[in-house]
Amino acid sequence: MKLEIVGVSFSYDGRPVLENVTMSVDEGNVVSLVGPNGSGKTTLLKCINKILKPKKGTVLVEERDIREIKLKELAKLLGYVPQTPTYSFSFTVFDTVLLGRRPYINWSISPKDKEIVSQALALMGIEDLALRYLNELSGGERQKVIIARALSQEPQVLLLDEPTSNLDIKHQLEVLGIIRSVVKEKRIVAVIAIHNLNLAFRFSDKVILLHKGRIHDAGEPAKVLTKENIRTVYGVEVEINNSEIGIPYIIPIAPVNKGGHLLWENFL
Amino acid sequence: MTSEGTQQAETESLPCSKLYSKLAARKILFFLVCLVVLVILVPVSASFGSVHLEVNDVFHAIIARIFPFSGVKSSELASVIVWRLRLRWVTMAMVAGAGLSICGAVMQGALQNPLVSPFTLGVSSGATLGASLAIILGIGFVGSGRYFIVANSFVFSMITSLLIIGFGRLRGTTPEAFILVGIALTYSFSAITSFLQYFAEEGDLMAVAHWIFGSVMRASWEDIMLVSATMLICLPLLMKFSWDLNAMTLGDEVAISLGVNPARVRIACMILVALVTASITSFTGIIGFVGLVAPHVARLVIGGDYRLLIPCSCVLGAIMVVTANIIGRSIMPPTVLPVGIVMSSIGGPFFLYLLLKKRRRYWK
Which residues of B94-123 are buried (b: 16+ CB within 10 A; e: fewer)? Predict the structure, then answer.
């Protein structure tokens, strides 16, 4: 098992955000974390990466308890892509991606580091941006840089927080496609917090549906992303159709109230 | 640095890692050129002033003193002017500029903010309070005679900085915490100083005012040794944080995911910066501007990699303060204008020009 989350609970100032979350991910799998705003997706990713320390429970990466792994060592196992990439001073794209080699570098950069950075840039298709500065790029290009940076860490587990939220539909497909192929090829794991249920449906091997800090349901996309689950967790009535080319799609119809009645009868 | 057009052309023909290495080599070249400029500037600067000396005379005076048996002869006058006065000023200018700029670069990285300088840690207000207490009330913690004011301003600088670091830690060790606590404490300490000055004798007031103007002329060779030693101990320690500071530009969370403990790096850096800044300031008074601007100029040219940014800021800062000292001596001899005044009046507009001229924004 590449990644195991064992009974993780977390609270911000006494307000519980995660309660007893347990899940495991096998190598070569893409897992989507879905759930409404505030359901604990980001918090869970941060707990896995030791950015936050769980109140209870722990995380195992390749069977090792992360509490026993030093930050620098952990950085070789886990790559993290934050929801909103921030930067205080602008580096070139190459320098930014090179930061992914930080856990391996003591002072000088080896040819191997440069090679890995070049490969990550090539994989994301942004080699031609190598010497441009971050603030000169579009949101989509910048997102690709940040993902390339995480890839150059050569992690066993990729943690991505809303990697597609700032992207147009083409970049969305490209980014998720690349992540999926990297996961399959290198037999690693990706855990993606994502709002877009259609993309989650299509690109993941497993979907974990979080509801108020607990796992409401987990399993194959078709099993988890059902009308009933979505109504309960999101409070939205949806229609799930299968397109002619075999890609299912979810159409949100209207929010429902506690009694399960559509709020927008007149809109239909 | 090439224009964007040529960079584009090169991109097509070379793999990006080769291009990157080429660019890196160019940046190192820039650093070396600056270093050569500084080395030349020091003897040249000693020829400027109310008594004009040829650069040759300066060289002879320097060599005659360092290698007494080399046979090089120098006039008594040149030797006195060079060794007792100008070279001492220039060396202090160099050390102060280098130290404050290193501190500025590190502070901007540690607090992830382009607006901070070494004085964000309250050193200026602490030093002023310490000096005012010593001059106006004759109150001091340590030292006597010549070192009375110096020691007092050093102690109060360190107290201010450590208070800011301590309170900032209580508020969560974020950049904002340190900056805001710094502002609050700076105002509080300035208020105490103002109170003292309000009731002070005119003569004491003048003495305080003169002490505050950043000047490189007070420090003796022994003082300069002391400051240099502090710097030589702290500089390698700060350089060691280069990669950590690089990682922290992407924010604390990403830094953690890259194996860096941002809170620890931040506090360690700030303690070292406080030490260097306080030791410089207690001998020179407040030399503002260079600690903010030298790192920015370095960033404009060589980018944000702290492995090169720290040494580059160091050399550029030294060049800036040495130049300010030359100008201060040349404008209206025999009066020597303090470097602090010269630098702010010329450096301010120059920095504005750089910011407006460079299209590329290198901060967020």
Answer: bbbbbbbbbbbbbbbbbbbbeebbbbbbbb
* Nearest-CA distance B312 → chain A (Å): 16
* Complete edge-to-edge strand list for the sheet that includes strand A56-61: A15-25, A3-12, A56-61, A64-65
Q: What is the CATH number of the domain that holds B244?
A: 1.10.3470.10
Quote the CA–CA distance of B46 and B83 in Å, as a whole number. 9
Query: Does residue B44 lie in a domain region?
Result: no
Contact A82 B254 (CB under 8 A): yes
The residue type found at B177 is: A
Question: For residue B328, which of B213, B209, B206 has the smallest C-alpha distance?
Answer: B213
Look at residue B328 and tell me if it is in a domain. yes
Closest residue to A88, CB basis, from B243, B257, B363 = B363
Q: Is the dihedral of CA A225, A230, A236, A239 positive or negative?
A: positive
Distance (Å) from the alpha carbon of B51 to chain A's nearest alpha carbon: 46
Domain spanning A3-77+155-236, CATH architecture? 3-Layer(aba) Sandwich (3.40)
Total-model pTM: 0.87
Phi, psi of A53 (to 5 degrees): -105, 120
Residue-wise pLDDT for B199-241, tens only, equals: 888 888 888 888 888 888 888 888 899 999 999 999 999 999 9
Query: Nearest Cβ partner of B261 from A71, A90, A128?
Result: A71
**Tell me, what's the ipTM?**
0.89
**How far apart, in whole angstroms, are the C-alpha atoms of residue B309 and residue B305?**
6
Spell B341-356 as b/e; 16+ CB within 10 A means b. ebbbeebeeebeeeee
- Count of domains for chain B: 1
Residue B59, domain member (yes or no)? no
* B42 domain-assigned: no
In sequence order, the β-bridge partners of residue A192 are: A32, A160
Shortest CA distance from B12: residue in chain A: A128
Copy the structure tokens of residue B298.
């370095």
Nearest to A94 among B7, B20, B246 (CB): B20
Size of interface A-B (CB pairs under 8 A): 125
Maximum C-alpha span of chain B: 72
Cβ A50 vs Cβ B256: under 8 Å: yes
User: Taking every pair of C-alpha atoms in chain A, what is the biggest distance, in angstroms?
Assistant: 66
Strand A15-25 to strand A189-193: parallel, antiparallel, or no bridges (unpaired)?
A: unpaired
Q: Nearest 5 degrees, angle CA B349-CA B350-CA B352?
A: 65
Helix/strand/coil for A32: strand
Domain range enclosing B334: 99-357
Per domain, the residue ranges of chain A are: 3-77+155-236, 87-154
Q: Across the 268 residues of chain A, what is the mean pLDDT of every consecutive 10-residue run?
A: 90 89 93 93 93 91 91 92 82 92 89 90 89 86 91 94 89 92 93 94 94 92 91 90 84 82 67
